[in-house]
Design a protein that fits this description.
Structural class: alpha/beta
CATH superfamily: Amidase signature (AS) domain
Radius of gyration: 22 Å
Helix content: 25-40%
Strand order of the largest sheet: 1-3-2-4-6-5-10-11-9-7-8
Distance between the termini: 25 Å
Strand content: 5-15%
Order of helices and strands: HHHHHEHEHEHEHEEHHEHEHHHEHHEEHH
Shape: globular
CATH topology: Amidase signature (AS) enzymes
CATH architecture: Alpha-Beta Complex
Largest sheet: 11 strands, mixed
């Protein structure tokens, strides 16, 4: 087995960027037709856009053009889009504008441009999972959630960057290069729904879809200062979404406000008979549920989720609890949530990737590859997971989900920090992931390449809620001294999205954190990514090359 090097990672990342990101984002003729009001329109929320479309004070075409103009300027800096579907979006918008002019509206999302995480299949448009393995993959069918959104009148604007195959919480491992945090372009977005959160923070889309297996909606929402909801498992169909670990996978709305997530969820939720993880449910008006009184809500603060929290995050969350206590019945329990969690339910991911490897080989990004090299060729003495192991894991997962609701005894919702740590710098994160990948391939690591379950990882607080399968939302609750967002997470028992949204909305109304925007302009400099620049090779690599050249 060849040793992974930073040099090999650099070459692959740079060649991908040169091959894929210098293509014009949308036709020049369409750019020239864009309105002068693009900056004003792009800052609107989904709720505001919906209201204006229904009042016929703005058209879907104007909204799409405004976003495309801004994308053309800022996406090269933020790198949140893998594929911009400009022509298709304008064609969709034209049809929806004609319907609106005739007084026919499909619903609250009629004409609203949305973005999709690029692990969600779109017929005729590539869906890559940010992997070299799928860089040219073009599905023939839409995912069920895309069919549902189109039926509701949403315009699909493009496909958003992510951590390769949704397998990490940093968002920086992508064949198309890392997404950048709009609040600080040298900082990670969080993952795996990296592009979704970055696009929202940069005003490059009104609403987006993410997926969440260990925290992939909530972690980037926290680090990018946006709002993201992981609904009850099975409430939103995952059929047609490239799996990370199917038994833990969720699909949910991401937006800039709580009310936007409520509005979007109402159009996303619904039973899918062909999705084996889908659960029967009745239609719910989540916007109405969001407005329910919260004065009687009792809050829990599970102590284990507050361990090893960085001081600035701890201070912001404590202040948020002061606000929430004034709005509710207060903190009534330390909420010792059941911690008998399964080992991750990884059998789903291994099964999917085993079939991919048989077809494509180990054509992953270097930090991802060792995980599957070990799976296909376990080192001597390594435990090889069996069918019995997988069955036990899934049984434990089912038990977890049956028991968790009963743990809400004496409290209605829990409130915790979304992440324990601030977002790291991209260069530091890439270096750590390459170091981890190298040690794993040499057999000196435990095999945990990514940061899902480590105390220093972005997903440490979020991942239990995927095992629980209960609804959880992240929303802004403050900023660090360096000006980076801090996230607050609220969760409740299964199918209690209404309570989660209500408490989050009440907090949002009592604060103004969600109103803050990063400053991004055409002149904003883009810091170099050291790990992605061949001229920035590590000293040991340069020395090795110089020695070979001299010999």
């Amino acid at each position: 087995m060849s040793k992974l090097t930073r040099r090999s990672f650099n070459g692959l990342a740079v060649s991908a960027l040169l091959a894929e990101t210098v293509i014009p984002l949308w036709p020049a003729a369409s750019r020239a037709a864009a309105p002068d009001t693009s900056e004003d329109l792009t800052t609107l929320s989904v709720t505001e856009v919906s209201a204006r479309i229904h009042a016929r004070t703005v058209t879907s075409t104007e909204l799409v053009q405004a976003l495309l103009t801004r994308i053309n300027v800022l996406n090269p800096k933020v790198n949140c889009y893998i594929t911009v579907m400009g022509q298709q979006a304008l064609a969709q918008a034209a049809v929806l504008d004609a319907e609106a002019k005739a007084g026919r509206f499909r619903g609250p999302l009629h004409g609203v441009p949305l973005g999709l995480k690029d692990n969600i299949d779109t017929a005729g448009t590539r869906t890559t999972a940010a992997s070299p393995m799928f860089k040219d993959r073009v599905p023939t069918e839409d995912a069920e959630i895309v069919i549902r959104l189109k039926r509701a009148g949403a315009v699909i604007l493009g496909k958003l960057n992510l951590h390769e195959f949704a397998l990490g919480c940093t968002g920086d491992i992508s064949y198309f290069g890392p997404s950048r945090n709009p609040w600080s372009l040298d900082t990670v977005t969080g993952g795996s729904s990296a592009g979704s959160a970055a696009a929202l923070a940069a005003d490059l889309v009104f609403g987006a879809l993410g997926t969440d297996t260990g925290g992939s909606i909530r972690c980037p929402s926290a680090w990018c200062g946006t709002v993201g909801l992981k609904p009850t498992v099975g409430l939103v169909s995952i059929r047609g979404i490239i799996p990370c670990s199917a038994s833990l996978d969720h699909c949910g709305p991401m937006a800039r406000t709580v009310e936007d997530c409520a509005l979007m969820l109402g159009q996303m939720a619904g039973y899918d008979q062909l999705d084996i993880f889908s659960v029967p449910s009745q239609p719910v008006d989540y916007v109405k549920e969001m407005h329910q009184p919260v004065k009687g809500f009792r809050l829990g603060t599970p102590a284990s989720f507050y361990d090893h929290v960085e001081p600035e995050i701890e201070a912001a969350v404590k202040q948020a609890l002061v606000v929430l206590t004034s709005l509710t019945a207060g903190v009534t329990s330390s909420a010792p949530l059941w911690d008998g969690l399964p080992g991750g339910g990884t059998g789903d991911a291994e099964f999917y990737h085993h079939e991919l490897i048989e077809k494509y080989g180990l054509n992953y990004m270097p930090p991802t590859r060792p995980r599957y090299e070990r799976m296909e060729n376990p080192p001597p003495g390594a435990h090889v997971a069996t069918a019995a192991d997988s069955a036990k894991s899934h049984q434990k997962l089912a038990e977890t989900r049956r028991r968790i609701d009963a743990q809400f005894n004496g409290f209605d919702l829990v409130v915790v920090p979304t992440t324990r740590l601030q977002a790291p710098k991209i260069n530091d994160s890439l270096a750590n992931e390459m170091k981890s990948a190298s040690s794993t391939s040499s057999g000196s690591s435990s095999g945990k390449i990514y940061d899902w379950f480590t105390s220093g990882g972005g997903c440490f607080n979020t991942q239990p809620f995927d095992a629980y399968g209960i609804p959880a939302i992240s929303l802004p609750c403050g900023f660090t001294k360096a000006g980076m967002p801090i996230g607050l997470m609220i969760a409740a028992p299964h199918f209690q999205e209404g309570k989660v949204l209500a408490l989050a909305y009440a907090y949002q109304q009592a604060t103004d954190w969600h109103k803050r925007r990063p400053t991004l302009t055409a002149d904003t400099p883009v810091p170099p990514i050291i790990e992605g620049k061949p001229e920035s090779k590590p000293a040991e690599v340069r020395k090795e090359e110089e020695t070979k050249a001299a010999g």
